[in-house]
Each structure stands twice: as structure tokens, then as C-alpha cells.
Amino acid sequence: MNAPTLPTPGTPLPETLFSVPGMRCAGCIAKLESGLAAVPGVAAARVNFTAKRVTVTHAALSDAALAGAFAGLGFEAVPLADVMAADDGSESRELLRAVAVAGFAAMNVMLLSVSVWAGAAGPTRDMFHWLSAMIALPAIAYAGRPFFRSAWRAVRAGRTNMDVPITIGVGLATALSLYETITGGAHAYFDSAVMLLFFLLTGRWLDAVMRDRARDGVTALLRHTAPGALVRQGDGGTAWVKAADLRVGMVMIVAAGERLAADGEVIAGRSHCDQSLLTGESLPVQVLPGDRALAGSINIDAPLTVRITAAGAATGIADIARLMESAGQSRSRYVRIADRAARLYAPAVHGLALMSLIGWLAAGAGWHQSLLIAAAVLIITCPCALGLAVPAAQIVAAGALMRGGVLVKDGSALERLAEADAVVFDKTGTLTLGRPQPLDLAALAMADKSLALALAEHSRHPLSMALRRALTAEAVVPAPVSDVAEVAGMGVSGVWQGQKVALARPAADAADGLACVLTVGDAPPRLLRFADPLRPDAAATVARLSAMGLPASILSGDRAAAVVPVADVLGLPARAGLSPQDKLAAIGEMTMAGARVLMVGDGLNDGPALAAGHVAMAPATASDASQNAADAVFLGDSLAPVAIAVGVARATARIVRQNFAAAIAYNVVAVPLAIAGQVTPLVAAVAMSGSSILVVANALRLRSAAR
Amino acid sequence: MNGLMILIPVALALGLAGLAVFFWTLRHGQYDDLDGAAVRILIDDDTPLGGDDAG
Question: Any idea which UniProt keywords this protein has (chain B) (predicted)?
Fold first, then answer.
């Protein structure tokens, strides 16, 4: 189809990113890298195992051809939008640099401090303090920036957050230590200040990595929506036009298997369009000249010529996107646990420090000692353990879920998932696999099977592809069929041992659901029926969720006839034939009634509902917009990850609560000591690291939570 | 005391060198695929030197 064209020398080869969730081991890496490099037109392939991505450098091969190469190696690959690669994890990198600097400074200052605590006195102690200052000051200036910036922003906006006490504590400790050093005093707090930054930055970094990873995972699964279309030019030729440059009135030629880039009216060609992503309708819809064809749907059978009636922001897809955006705004107002804690914590800490300052001044302790004690209070209460409590637990949980096949977008997703108390499923592609599978294969003779395979191999119709998948899995060998021809929208025919054989559309296809007919010579035609099977574990998952206190229901855009059997099998209440607006309204009603809805869906038509739910999950086969709207994406055919994710989210919430309890218990013990003026730098250092390590160790218990 | 005059700068210099190396590795993306690095060691890569056929 797309022959590799050699680019002019000197221009960089195009790179395409693929998400390959199926890679599991070193063997897969070797197989992918060497196997892809051997494909003609591919210059190199590099696997990123952590993100489960492959970067392919190639000579302008089409995505479909590359995905075919992956399939040839036995991997399912999804091409992903190339927008994301650029700003990969810049925030987490900056934080990691700050962690490294703070860690370096903490280690070296601690070496010097230990010598001081061990009894270095006089000029040696002063020299060590000076050295500590020389190391700590630039390190604090560099590593503290994330906190200083955020604290400054908060103060300027008249608010306070967790970063304000951190900034004041670090600043006060540094200033006092500098004063002590200059005047040759006995105690300097440089080590505490630097270590504080180190632990807090570690927490921040974990949080950022978690978000990056999830973003990697989710964007990694983004599908290319139609990037553009072939447009007929005035001179009769055709040119490739990017989706953004398509205009009303242009005439585009849509090949079979291609996704439409704009809404339009068919002016030539007969075909079927798969609109399941847009409407939830699982049967392909027939389109004839004069019919409307929608952007985002896939043209299945035959080439279509379409005059564009709406492009870009005017398409039906864009309407859904806008609906989704406004529905998602309520969720962005969700306040994360850590922020809620900070709201209470910061004023309390400031108050305590101020009170100890005033108290000691009133008791006649003098400015220097009072300030020293206030700084000790700020340092010891600084939310080291608190800063680690949430991100440490969440990143361990997210890692466990990732190994279990669930990609979580951010920490608040886990928090909201733990709060969910009702679940709503879409049908096509969510409860069911969204890809037809043949039902009558067992009744078919071996010769018929090999004929069917031989014919199916020549078509890209979804039913043909389903037939091919099923028959190849049974190791059927295709029969030698000659003169194979595909008639658009009708089927494939050929000649085998002098007889005419055909795989065709049955006479009345809409009534029978998904089916095709195999005819061999004059023998009576055999009807092959197809069904969209339930995901494995669907019933078990629904039962498990309801045992966890999440009653389920179905909201589907498909016809009632297709929804009722599924609802009956699973024993769930269902509503069928809903538009995206209807689904949005249904979720809104449940939310008004006080439910916190976990929405699970895959279609573009589920997008607004996904965005409106308290929390949302989508399968990896979902449309890109749905994956964007979802908080978590699950891989594989099984529905079980939904229940597992809820379980892990709840376990995480439990661990976070324990961590908060530990951090508070630590403060209850440490703060009175600090207020009483009993906290030396040694005590502060030990207490701080001890509580942080305890919190991280507790979070590590979530490692196997997804099993 | 004299020992310290040498050893402390040496210790700091070593630490700074480590930090510099860390920054260098970070900038060159050596932490982008930690899981992959852990399993890549298991790949048999026994193509003869100079051979350009990896498949």
C-alpha cells in the first residue's frame, strides 16, 4: 500500500512511537528490536521497557504497515500521537536534580556534623561549621527552589500551603546556623535544613514520577485519530491534507480501513462505517451516496468519496469533546488528601512556632535562644513524614497496579477510586470485548474452515478479520483459492477446485445481527454467526464489586436488543439507546442522589460520562478521548482489573491513613520536646529520618497489593 | 588537623564528581528505562563484531 520511499540524505528519518503492552521479558525486547530492524524500510527500533513503548525509526512507513510488522512478531502494538515525546518528565527531572544536590549536601554536612556531635570543639568545630555552611548554602539555594517558588506564590495570593512552613523553617534554620557559625556558637542546624529538603524533595519527586508514569502510560495508549485525509485537487490529482487544514467543501477520498477526519456527505461509494466509538452502536452502519459520514468513524468495506460538511471544531466529535471538557471541570476541583492536610497543618505549625517564640521570650529567654527554639519547632514539625506519607504510598500502589495491568493517571485518581460507591458500565467494548467472534466454527468441516480462512485473508472487513483470528488460532491452513476478488460491501469470492466459493453478506444482515455466509459451489450456504462476547471475568468482577459495596448498572448507546442479553447474563439494571448527553445526565442524577460513581467506558460517546463520574476507568482499547477522560486505563481482555484497582485504591487509602497517624504520633512526641528547648540538632536529625523511613517502609507493604 | 586539610577537600571533590556524573547520566537519559536496563543484560548479543546483520 505505502511503499517505503527513501528520504533525501541528511534529513532525519521519521520516528513513530508504539505502545506495546504485551512485552514482558528480555526475550521480548530482543525479539522486537532485532525483528523490527529486519523489516524492510525500518532503520532501527528501540524499546523502552518501563513505559512499554517502542520507538521505530523508519523510512516513511505507514502506521498500519508498522503495526503489521509488530503483529508479525506476535505483539499487539498501538501507534501513539507524536506530540507527547517532547516534554517528557521535565518536572520530575528538575526535582531529581534537586534531590541529588540535597542528598549530596546532606551526606557531606552530616559527616561534618557527626564529628561535631562526637566532640569536636574549639577551632575544629568552627571550621566544620564553616565547611557545612559552604556546602549547605548553595545546596539549599538550589534544591529549595521548588518550595520557595510555591511558597512565594501562595503567600502572594494570600494563602498558605505546606511549602510556607517548609520555607520559613529552612530559611530560619539556615539564618540562625549562619549566625551561630559566624559567632562561633555550639549548634548549627545546616544538616537538619539540608536533610529536610532531601526527604521532602524525595516525596515531591515520587509524586511527579507517578504522574509522569501515568501520563506516559495513558498517552502511550492514545490512538491516532485520523491525522488527515486525501483530498481531491482541482487538477484531478489528490493531496494529503492534515486534519487541521481540512475545510468545508473539500472532497476527501477515504480508503477502506481508514478513519474519517471530518464530517461529510458521501458522494460516491457504498460502504459500512464502524461508528461504535461515536455512538456505541456495535453493528457497522451502511452508508450510501447522500448519507452522512461522521468524523472518527472507520470506513470498513470500500473506498468512499466524501464532501466535507464540517471540519475541525465543528465536527460531531468536537461537540463531544466540549461536552467532556465542561463535565470534567468539577473533577479538577477535587482537593487531594495531602492538600487538605496541608490546609490544617500549616497554620497549626506556624501557630506552634510563634507561640513557642513568644512563650520563651515571655519567660525571659532572650531573642537568640527563643528564635533557635522556634526554628527547632518548625524543623521538627516540618512535614517530612507527612510529605512522604501520601506520595510514597501512592507510587508503590501505582507500581503494583501497573504490574497488574492498570495504569493510574495520578494520585487523586487513587483517592477518588477508594471513595467510589457505585459503578456504571458501558456495554460495547467495556463489558464486552468490542470485537466480534465467530460462534459456529465447531460445526464447520475442516475443508470449509480452510476455505473460509483463504477468503477471509483477502478482506479487511471486521468479520473477516475476526474469522481469520479465530481460524489462525486453530492452526487451520488456508486452501489454495484462486481468482479472489472482493466486491465492496458484498463479500469475497474466488475459485477453488473449479467451484465458485464466496464469503458474503447474508441477505438480511441487520435482522440477524453480525453474520456472514459461506458458499461452496452448489452446496447450501452456511451461515456463520458472530457475537461480541463478554469480557472474561465480567460476571465475577460485577459480583466482586457489589460485594465491595459498589452496585453496578449499565448505560449503553447501543440498541436495546443488543443490551438486554448482556444485562440479563450479568443481572444488572440497564438503559439502552442513550446519547452522550443522556449518559451525562444519568451520571449527573446519580451524583445528585449522593452516589460517587465509578464510570467504566470506552467509546467516545462515553467521554462526557467518564469526565462527569467521580472517577473513571477505560480499557486500553478505548478511544483516545475516553482514555484522556479516564483516571485509569486497564490492559488486556479481562474485566477483573476494575475490581483489583478498587481494592488497591482502598488499601492505599488505608496505608495513607496509617502514615498520617504515624506522622501525627511522631509530632505529638517530638513537638513538646522541641517547645521545651530539648531538641539538639542530633535529636532533630534522628527523629526526622526515623519518621520518614517508617512511613516509606509502611508504604512498601502495598507492593503486592494488586495480586 | 593537617590530614583533615587534605582529606575533607578530597572527600568533597569526590562527592562533587559523583554529583556531576549523576547529572551527566540524567541528561543522557540513563534513568528513562530502568526496568529495561535490568532485563537487557539477559539478552544474548553474540553477533560477531563488525557484523551488520542483527536479525
Answer: Membrane, Transmembrane, Transmembrane helix
Kindly state the percentage of chain A with pLDDT values over 90.
9
Q: Which three cell numbers stand for residue A137?
A: 548554602
- Within 13 Å and on the Cβ side, how many CA atoms surround A531? 12
How close does chain B come to A220, measured CA to CA in Å?
15
Instruction: Give me the residue label for grid cell 537568640.
Output: A368
Is A483 catalytic? The answer is no
Nearest CA to CA, how far is B27 from chain A (Å)? 9
Domains and CATH numbers, chain A: 15-86 (3.30.70.100), 228-314 (2.70.150.10), 437-531 (3.40.1110.10)
Tell me the pLDDT tens digit for each residue of A60-73.
777 778 888 888 88
Alpha helix stretches (DSSP H) within A144-189: 145-156, 163-183
Q: Which of A26, A50, A112 is nearest residue B33 as measured by Cβ atoms?
A: A50
Give the ipTM of the model, two decimals please.
0.76
Q: Where are the domains of chain B?
A: 19-43
pTM of the model: 0.71
CB within 8 Å of chain B, chain A residues 96-155: 96-97, 100-101, 104, 107-108, 111-112, 124, 131, 135
| All cell numbers assigned to A3 | 511503499
- Write out residues in chain B with pLDDT < 70, as ranges: 1, 45-55
Backbone conformation region of residue A296, classed left if phi is above 0, alpha if psi is from -120 to 50, else beta: left
Arithmetic mean of pLDDT, A15-35: 80
State the Cα–Cα distance between residues A614 and A442, nearest whole angstrom: 44
* Residues A122-148 pLDDT 10s: 888 888 899 899 999 999 999 999 889
Contact B26 A100 (CB under 8 A): yes
